[in-house]
Amino acid sequence: MNGSRITSEEKATLSTYVGVGILVVLMAMVVYFFFLQQKEVEQTTGFDPNRPVPSDAVLKRRLKAEEYSVVRGGRTDMAFQNEFWDNQRTGIYVDVTTGEPLFTSLDKYDAGLGMTSFGKPISKDLLVENLDTSHGLQRTQLRAKRSNAQLGHLFPDPNSPTGQRYAVNSAAFRFIPVEQMKEKGYEAFLPLVEKK
To answer: Model confidence over 66-118: pLDDT tens digits?
Structure first.
């Protein structure tokens, strides 16, 4: 450097250092967001009983508004206007909050009410039944035991193969088709959907 004047060689060197610095910062940001994305994928792929239940703040960010209002706000799907009421595909229905498998397509039946209906869950131990007296009715509310997600209601139903109808909200579930179960981390649950 000569006095207060910067030579063109010094400008070129300074520009190189600034450019390299910006490149390093950008690369660090790309790596950070890549690992953040991978962590999010790990938290939403398959079911791991050791994975903690996401907080309400995480669920509010991760779920669609409709899903959140059903599982945490107690809202109910509209009959004949929900995603799975007429789904005929083979697979499993998993808790939208934790990915835990709760129902299979083999136990699904058409109750004629426009709601996703099952004769039984994968295991009754996965659900909690509570008395629900809202709207001037006396019903049995269904919640996922692990996540406390509101799922729907349980009713007696002589048309059900088990005499009971698990009427659940489509928004409380993700459907994993049989052909994607292995890829999505549900290979251990394939025997549940194999026809007997």
So the answer is: 999 999 998 999 999 999 999 999 999 999 999 999 999 999 999 999 999 99
Q: Which DSSP state fits 136?
A: G
121 occurs within a structural domain: yes
Q: Return the structure tokens found at 51.
A: 């994975």
Closest CA to 97 of 51, 166, 37: 51
85 & 161 share domain = yes
Q: Are residues 68 and 90 in the same domain?
A: yes
In a domain? residue 134 = yes
Query: Distance between CA atoms of 122 and 12, rounded to whole angstroms?
Result: 68
Q: Is the pTM of the predicted complex or chain greater than 0.85?
A: no
Q: In angstroms, how far is the first alpha carbon of the chain from the final one?
A: 85
Considering just the CA atoms, what is the radius of gyration of the chain in Å? 25
Residue where the block lists tokens 């729907």:
152
Q: Looking at the chain, how many residues does it have?
A: 196
Q: Domain containing 163: what range? A: 56-193
Residue 41: per-residue pLDDT? 47
The answer to whether residues 148 and 88 belong to one domain is yes
Q: Looking at the predicted structure, is the pLDDT value of residue 163 above 90?
A: yes
DSSP-assigned letter for residue 112? S
